[in-house]
Design brief:
Strand order of the largest sheet: 2-1-5-4-3
Strand content: 15-25%
Largest sheet: 5 strands, antiparallel
Oligomer: single chain
Order of helices and strands: HHEEHHEHHHEE
Shape: globular
Number of strands: 5
Distance between the termini: 24 Å
Helix content: 25-40%
Number of helices: 7
Amino acid sequence: MATALDETIAAIYQAGACMRSWDDALVQVNNDLGTLGCQMIGVSKVSGAIIFSHASILAAADSELAYIRTYHAVDPRVPVVLARQQGSWLYDQDEFAVETFFKNTYYSELLMSAGGRFSASTKVFENPEEVYLIAFVSGLSGLGFEPHHRL
């Protein structure tokens, strides 16, 4: 009998094989983790441009578009995650001073206005030309990513 985790892993593989939408698979991950939203992006290592973006449908489309258009350029997480090894998680609540969440426009104008507070991000794939990142966002009312969220 398949467990919820088995179904989520299958959804991720199906999305990777173009047999299911990434939006659908990411919603399943959100539901498992109890997070507000999830986004996976590809970034060109040559130009820094976003190659693709998939967000769970729990994330408002206008927020995803605003991130792609404007806020990726001021997102303080990206350079930190890019400098880390693949699979090394960044929990922004541990990395940045509290003031960052109110002074940085990514947090104050985009994330908090969309109901988000903290995020957990990692590099899931990298080659000489591109890197793929994934981030999970907790809601404003949450305490962030607690030990039971971190594997």
